[in-house]
Write a sequence for this structure.
């Protein structure tokens, strides 16, 4: 268990990809701080299962992020994963949705990072892993805010990778293609509307058509990749943007 003695904060880890990353890091002995919304009893069960603590901070609010980070103490592994999506033509894109997506998918990672870095520098070791997306490299229509936020986090990650490289801290993105989680399920009705398609057409002709494997990525696969990035053997993997998208962005 190579992560014994390390503390990992995984944002947006009450569901989907974040939860799979938290489980994978916990399996290697990391002490986990969960974050995200959800049913209280379910979250209490997750805390029991993982021996974790939980912060319900709303990461669109800088003050709540500061409170969460102060309570979490020194973090060795920071996984910026919380994110939301909204699908709409740009001219109808609700302004509040744009602001929410940029605040959560991009600005929150700036706040957690600036607050975690001093502790990592003190220890001379740290891992920052940002869940970006295939949409940090390429675009799809009707996802203007999401694509902007994900291209933004990719640029942010490269910048901090350069700044922190000599302190034993690495920063990388993991960039999944389509992973079957509540985030994907939630965008199907809007995609049906925006593109005039049925549910099956959205799944087969919009989502899976992109992935050469014709399979959804499994959250556990992203957990395994994130765990690898925490290994000492990954100390020179820095500023990378790892695709895990079945070959989508190879095209
Ligand atoms: P999900 O909906 O299953 O989980 C999102 C998590 O974020 C939940 O824990 C939720 O409670 C939390 N969250 C939402 N709003 C929050 C807020 N304001 N403050 C704090 N936490 C909040 O989604 P997912 O599919 O697991 O997505 C996780 C990340 O992976 C996102 O950044 C997403 O963009 C990215 N991603 C997902 C896919 C996919 O196909 N599912 C593909 C590429 C990238």
């Amino acid at each position: 268990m190579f992560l014994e003695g390390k503390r990992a904060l995984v944002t947006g880890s009450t569901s989907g990809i974040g939860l799979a990353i938290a489980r994978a890091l916990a399996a290697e002995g990391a002490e986990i701080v969960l974050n995200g919304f959800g049913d209280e009893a379910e979250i209490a069960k997750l805390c029991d299962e993982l021996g974790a603590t939980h912060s319900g901070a709303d990461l669109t609010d800088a003050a709540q992020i500061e409170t969460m980070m102060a309570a979490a103490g020194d973090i060795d592994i920071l996984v910026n994963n919380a994110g939301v999506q909204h699908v709409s033509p740009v001219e109808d894109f609700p302004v509040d949705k744009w602001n929410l997506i940029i605040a959560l998918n991009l600005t929150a990672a700036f706040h957690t990072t600036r607050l975690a870095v001093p502790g990592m520098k003190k220890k001379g070791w740290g891992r920052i892993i940002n869940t970006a997306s295939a949409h940090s490299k390429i675009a799809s229509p009707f996802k203007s805010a999401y694509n902007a936020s994900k291209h933004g986090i990719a640029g942010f990650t490269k910048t901090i990778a350069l700044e922190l490289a000599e302190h034993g801290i690495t920063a990388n993105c993991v960039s999944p293609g389509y992973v079957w989680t509540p985030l994907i399920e939630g965008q199907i009705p809007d995609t049906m509307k925006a593109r005039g398609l049925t549910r099956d057409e959205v799944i087969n002709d919009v989502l899976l058509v992109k992935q050469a494997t014709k399979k959804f990525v499994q959250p556990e696969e992203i957990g395994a990749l994130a765990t690898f990035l925490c290994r000492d053997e990954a100390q020179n993997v820095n500023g990378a943007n790892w695709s895990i998208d079945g070959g989508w962005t190879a095209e």
